[in-house]
Structures are given as C-alpha cells and as structure tokens.
Amino acid sequence: MVQRFAAVAIAGSCAWLVAAGAVRAQTCPAPGTASTACTGACAAIIAPTPTAAKGGTVAIPITFNQGPNDAQANSGIDDVAAVAFTLGVPGTTGAGTPLTFNCTGGNIDPAAVQAGSGDFTVVIENAQCAGRDHCLCPGDGQTRDNFVNIVAYGPKNLPEQGPVQIPRLNSGVLVTLTMKVDANAPDTIPLHIFSAMDPGSTKPEFSANFSMGDQSACDVTATQTRSNVIFTHGAVTIGQGTPCVGDCNGNHEVIINELVIGVNIALTAQPVSACPAFDPNNDGQVLINELILGVNNALRGCQ
C-alpha cells in the first residue's frame, strides 16, 4: 500500500485531484507507508463469494464501506471520495485466465461493468489495449490480464467552470463485474484485493497501488504506519448443477430489484449481461419459465 494514488489506475482522475485542490486548498497530513493492518476505525473493501457454473457467467459485486464518522467535514476515512485498487482474478499466485470479460472490438462490453449508486465514475484502466502488450481484451500479439485495475471517483461530470462539489462514495456495492467462467476453470477461483497487507504475495506487474483520497483531496490510505482499510478477499466457487436463477449479485438470495432486472431483460429493455443468472441455459435470452424460477427463488430462497 503506497501513500499516493496509483498513476497506473487513475485514468482521468487527475481532473478530480485538480478540481478538488482548487476548491479546498488544504494542508494534508503527511503520508505514511502502511506496515500494520487496520484495527478499530477502518474503511472496508470486500470481495464476494459467489457460486458459478463452468462455462457460465458470474456477477462479482465489490463492496466499499466508509469508515466511522470522525466529526471532521469533508476529510478522513468517513469521507472517501476516490479509491484505486487491483482485483486479482485469480488471486495472489493464480495462473491462467479462468475469468474473462465479454469483449467487442477490443473493448469490454459496457454492461459488464456496472457502477454502484452515487455520483461517481468507475474506470477499468487495463480495459484499454491500444499501444500495449497486455490488457483485458487483447488482440493479436497481446496478453490477457488476469487482474482488473479499478478506480472510482466523482463527480461523474465536471462543470466547464465554477466550483466543483466532490461527492463521497456511497457505502455499499462500488462496482459489479460480470465475467465469463472458463469451461476448464478450477473448483475455486480466488478474488484478491492487492495491498501492502499481503505478506508473501506477488503483486502483478502493471497492477495498481491501493489508495484512497477524501473530499479534500488528501490521501487517507494509511495513518503513519497503520493501514486505514480492512480487506476481505473472496472467491468464485464452481457449483454443480444450475445456479440460483435470478441471483444477480451472487449473494444467494433473490430480491425485488433483481426480479425487475429479469423482467427488463425478458422485454429486451436490458441486455442479458445485466443479470446472467436469469439465463441458466446460456441461450442469450430470458423466457417466462426462467422468470418464474426467479420468482420462486425470491419466495422460497436459493436452494
């Protein structure tokens, strides 16, 4: 964990730093280098533990939670406005590419990366392949990454002039990645958020340094030598048989907003990639019988 925003992942975020600095000129606390895990008052970033089928797709919601209120407006780990990190798919030492994105023309399918609620933008830095030898949607002579460089910051749109209000990130799902599971994937695919709190792990080359910034454009990744973030790693478990129909985010339950997504997909108002769990037979469409299965799972729970 390095005390700065990782340049490799902050495509477009320089505008955020400049705008924030112009609005709130402030002396930031001296940065440190984290060597001790966070205890007590901490922000949190959490990878999920979904179940998927080989050859199918899986939704991977990444959750971010603000730290506890420190009674200081616009600053600190309770007012985080930007975060950059790398998600390993697979984790720290995994090889190969068991999870990949749908790609079209060298770009990730836009529906495969869904930002959570709030006035912020999510950028996948290594989605861009032009002029590179590695990326997530490679062409001839390029290598496919098995890690995802992610940055979230707001606002979504900067005004042409005048003051800029830098919004906090909402606690909850920060971004949901929808990825394809290789037909030869292992039974467990680790999902690992890289940081300095990884003794013995090997951080991928060209991955991001984990970092957070608050609304005052100060780096709040760590305090002196202590990390300000708790990391919860996850894993995709390869299940047997049909996954829970309608469980868009892989949390083993189906709720009303997921049913609405299923109906929208059936009406072609949204793509199947918005919730692949409504398409258990992977035929690229959602039919009435699949909607009924989703409703039953909402009423009775995922078995």
Can you walk through the features of this model?
This protein folds into two domains: 14-241, Immunoglobulin-like; 243-303, Type 1 dockerin domain, CATH 1.10.1330. α2 packs antiparallel against α3 (288-300). The chain is an alpha+beta fold and 303 residues long. Strands 2, 4, 9, 12, 14, 15 and 19 form a seven-stranded mixed beta sheet that branches. Strands 1, 3, 5, 8, 13 and 18 form a six-stranded mixed beta sheet that branches. Helices cover 11% and strands 27% of the residues. The model is unreliable at 1-25 (pLDDT under 50). It is globular and about 60 Å long. It has three helices and 19 strands. The protein has helices at 14-23, 256-266, 288-300, and strands at 43-46, 51-52, 57-65, 80-88, 99-100, 103-104, 107-108, 113-115, 121-124, 134-135, 143-144, 147-153, 172-181, 188-193, 211-214, 222-223, 226-227, 229-232, 234-238.
Helix percent band: 10-25%
Question: Any idea of the CATH class of the largest domain?
Answer: Mainly Beta
- Overall strand count: 19
Strand content: 25-35%
The quaternary structure here is single chain
Largest sheet: 7 strands, mixed
Secondary-structure element pattern, one letter each: HEEEEEEEEEEEEEEEEEEEHH
Q: Summarize model confidence as the mean pLDDT.
A: 85
CATH topology of the largest domain: Immunoglobulin-like
The N- and C-terminal alpha carbons lie at a distance of 40 Å
* Global morphology: globular
> What structural category characterises the helix and strand content?
alpha+beta
Tell me what the CATH architecture of the largest domain is: Sandwich
Uncertain residue ranges? 1-25
How large, in whole angstroms, is the Cα Rg?
20 Å
Counting structural domains, the number is 2
Number of helices: 3
